[in-house]
Amino acid sequence: MDARTQHGEGRKWHPEGHLGERSGWLRAAVLGADDGLVSISSIMVGVAASGAGATPILTAGLAGLMAGAMSMAGGEYVSVSTQKDVEIADRLREEAEQEEDPEGELRELAAIYQSRGLPRDLANQVAVALHRSGALEAHLRDEIGQTSDRAARPLQAAFASAASFFIGGLVPFLGMLAGTTLSRTIVIVCVTLIGLVVSGLVSGRLSGTPPLKPALRLFFGGGAAMLTTAIVGQMVHLIAS
Residues near 28 by Cβ (< 8 Å), separated by ≥ 6? Predict the structure, then answer.
């Protein structure tokens, strides 16, 4: 029987898509979009609350958009690069251990399978078979938890974070279509809160969790951020006048 055929009716095995495979890019993309929405809207609301006209609001928003996107890309790249460095160090250490004491590594792998419920003899057979086909990969996967689908990808994370920040940060600019400072502020707040709710619903859907909780969390968190900068902007206006 084909190794990719199941017992019983001869059904073919097929890879299942699991949510963990999305964890790297999904985290960066969701964080980037939410940060873009909250950061740019808060900047624009704060400037608007200070009594500034359309040009200062637009300038501040654009400056924040570009600076934020670059900051997100750089921060994410450094963070994920550090994670990748740890993965490489673990791999090199495991390679050295394989060369120094292959028999001890074989016993260690068998003990891991035994601790997970396999009988001792079967655990030894599995460990021997996997050592023959790829000892290093078996140890990286079952001893350390490294898998290719969850490997750190700094460039991918940096791009996802920057792009999503930029896209999310564009939403508050819809407020610039309004004619007065008050109406601009209201539109910015409204479209931002709507965007945060949508982001929460989408991220909940993609991560396989109930979407209402993350949507409400983003709604109130973003609202609090905009309220804070509005208060600061109003205080600056009062002091300056």
Answer: 76, 80, 156, 157, 158, 160, 161, 164
